[in-house]
Amino acid sequence: MALPFKGGGAGRFNPRFNRQPEPEHRINERIRALQVRLVGENVTVGIYPIQEALKIAQQLELDLVEISPNADPPVCKAIDYKKFLYEKKRKEKDMKANAKQSEVKEVRFTPGTDDHDFDFKAKHAEKFLKEGNKVKAYVQFKGRAIMFKERGELVLLKFAERLAESGQPESLPKLEGKRMFLMLTPKTAKKKKEAE
After folding, report:
1. Contact yes or no for 52/45 (Cβ under 8 A)
2. Coil, helix or strand for 171?
């Protein structure tokens, strides 16, 4: 059963719905410091009283933006605030695009994987590791093949040894159900340089 609507709320002020979003940075009159270090284009860099810094920014028809509030004194830049936010968002977007997400690539073996198949899969895994992805290698045991766990472990250890230059195992091979797996992580450029 729906509750009856009680009127009288139409004229009431609710601060949650009328709240203006707080700017990301303190700008112009919102800056609380008494002195600031002023930076920016066409500005003499230095420490100024806040009123003088505001006056300089107004003369240049720019905003005074507090870019480093924790510095002593806070660092403020004379810049067009909307342009500043646009450039900041663009930089963040570029950084996000460049930060490649690493994936986990799977490579499957059987206890009786032949040499040709092993080499083929090892080459692919090496390529995955060089691209910065993790490799999950596993041996699938079917039926009674589970009796040959040692063969599966040997395949995975041989695989880890083969990829020692480009990847390193996170742990020893583990058996879960009818699968034995080994996770390899790519070696970073620093570690490669140390090895040389």
Report:
1. no
2. coil
